[in-house]
Amino acid sequence: MSDSVTQPTPDATPTALPVIRPLPGAAPRARDDQQVHGDGWRITVLTDGLFRVERSTDGGFEDRASTFAIRRDLPAVPFDVERSGRGVVLTTARARLRYDGGPFSASGLLVEMIGADTGRWRYGEPTRDLGGTARTLDDVDGRTDLESGVVAPDGIAVVDDATSFLFEDDGWVGVRGADREDLYVFAYGRDYPAAVSALYAVSGPPTRLPRWALGNWWSRYHPYTADSYLALMDRFDDEGVPFSVAVIDMDWHRVDSVPSRFGNGWTGYSWERSLFPDPEGFLTALHERGMRTTLNLHPADGVRAFEDAYPTMARALGVDPETERPLPFAPTDRAFLESYFRDLHDPLEDQGVDFWWIDWQQGRTSDLPGVDPLWVLNHFHHLDAARNGGPGMTFSRYAGPGSHRYAVGFSGDAVVSWASLAFQPEFTATAANIGYAWWSHDIGGHTRGVRDDELATRWVQFGVFSPIMRLHSANNPFIRKEPWSFPPEHRAAMDDALRFRHRMVPYLHTMNHAAAAGTPLVRPMYHLEPRRSEAYRVPNEYAFGSELLVAPITEPRDPASLLGSVRAWLPAGTWTDVLTGTVYRGDRSLAFHRPSASIPVLLRAGGILPLDAGPDLDATRNPSELEVLVAPAASGTFVLAEDAEDDDAGAAAAGPAVRTELAWDLPTRTFRIGPAEGRGDLVPPVRTWILTVLAALPDGPVTVDGAEVAVTGVDGRWSVTATVPSDVGAVVRIAGEVRVGPDRRAAARTVLADAQMGNPEKLEAWEIVAADRPVVDRLAELDAVALPQAVRAALTELLGAVVGEVPPGDVS
């Protein structure tokens, strides 16, 4: 086939831009003054903690963009150069690199930290980094090995870029010269955010997702009809359980109806008309319900003669359609790739398909040495999705460092087991070590396993506090995720969890902007506290944006207490569980115990959590009503980010279209809703704001702009409501003291009431818990009662909670 780009045929759908085009934002050639050369080697100082180290037997060096490194033309940083024979010593403010000028060896190439952080790395030694992520969790029942990241407690991490393929100046794929080594050495010590920032500097920023991607996704491998799928969405709507993305697995295209002479129906691009007789009408109906749609792709078998687009694509590739000659999948052939998008995908998008689920499972090799088909699919699908000027949206597997540029990751077919669930929080958080922000898992599990209603519930609760909330299951009629297919206890918990995910979209979209600017939504605890050993011992606990810590429950509940539990560590300060209202002192490790209704979700002192409080379940629209949760033990500020439904790439690059500052000031007990700044036409001119304070009921009046308003709620969680002009804002003032930490004796009574244990021991324990004596005395007495250990631990947690404290710095 020709290497030239095929021009669109007359019957093809035109696109705004050719899919093969220069990389947006690429600047692959480093500044000359940041490069140091020698005989067969080149070292580039990219940042004060990032060195690129190259060696070439043929004397040539690579200045083209790679899948990992697309921006090497970074601002100059000062460094010292000391020549030593054939080698060199380079010193920046953070690190020193020593190289003897010969073949890379442990004795000849050394990088060491300077300053407060210590650590060194010699070529060939393991870096002992904390891991990054993995290509897939397909059929993984528990843990899997992780590829390397750029975060290392010993100070040094390395990305070997020698095996990635390259991009030519026009955006097409290229291959490397032989016998060349290409290392990126990150020397950042325990400044983990700076290491990730350097990764983004050279590899490009993460994709900012469209707002609707942050709601709930419905996915199931099942041969739905258009009518049955829409009826299901209407049932969810009737139940008040919102979904924003409709995932249609492979049965959208011809499978069983493929003539046998063409092989199986795993790959397909033509609607199965017996299921979807009017595709445009079906997709329009989903859009009318506020949903976006993605279709599953298995492209490995190419394009065969039964496909609707075959005649057009065959002619574009110089094949007579009458021959029915198969068009093999050839992602490294320019003509094939252009036609693949122009003739196969773009017409389906014109019908209403919003993005594609690229389900590539067929290996890492192609017709070009070192070119991974998954990389090609991710990259060009992203460019094609952005062809009309938008930021682009893709859904595919992780291909390696740099994959964060391609939106949402599909982690593969999860096994239904507690072991699978137990690994997913750690797997998700650790991905931040390689800058990968947007994992989507098969929430609830996809295949195998046994029915376990508690497991399904805990998985959904984790999914709500994961980057992408996508329910999914295999084509087994007994693996279901509809909440109404579960017993009442679990159905209620799932319904509440899915509704809360929708309510969090304002918060999630603000964190979406933060992720695009360099701070992933989900981060391990050691990103927050890198010098505390406790932060490394809680791999399943993580930061969820700037305001929350989450510790999912990933083990079955105790048979005596009927509570699930998880061990966690809290940094200094106070932390309030937004679901239970319990307040905890930080700077300690503890065990949390929860019934099936919740998991620990902790708001920092001064934390502000904006939630959608309106009746509209359409996640594409900015809400008309907002509830703001405040943990008032410290002052805090949060800037709410909002955008148009379909913002363009320019708006994405500039940050949010509308900003609203929310600020709590503890000394004056004042909460301010700032005026909406930016494109005020994108938010309602007047909004209802519900301020919910996670504290004891106020002992004085509460005013909004000087006028007293009614207080509703209970001790530990009370609210006031105000109608506020968006261009003006409002001020809420609380008279009297602010006390945090409701009395937890009622919660302790519930623990005892539900516990499967002796009634006399319950009464004995309750009399101790309810007594008006110091906590330390009650804990000592409780130790003498014959209680199941899990029940004792749950009571200990509640007795140790903060109760009725006036935060430091308050004024009375």
Architecture overview:
It is a single chain. By secondary structure, the chain is an alpha+beta fold. Helices cover 22% and strands 23% of the residues. It has 16 helices and 41 strands. Strands 20-19-18-17-16-15-14-21 form an eight-stranded parallel beta sheet. Strand 1 (35-38) and strand 2 form a beta hairpin. The longest helix is centred in the middle third of the chain and has 18 residues, at 334-351. The chain is globular. Mean pLDDT is 94; it is low at 1-15.
Kindly name the structural category.
alpha+beta
Biggest beta-sheet profile: 8 strands, parallel
Number of helices: 16
Outline:
globular
User: Strand share of the residues?
Assistant: 15-25%
Strand order of the largest sheet: 20-19-18-17-16-15-14-21
Instruction: List how many beta strands DSSP finds.
Output: 41
Low-confidence stretches: 1-15
Q: Over the alpha carbons, how many angstroms does the gyration radius reach? A: 28 Å
Q: What is the CA-CA span between the terminal residues?
A: 81 Å
Report the helical percentage.
10-25%
| Mean pLDDT level | 94
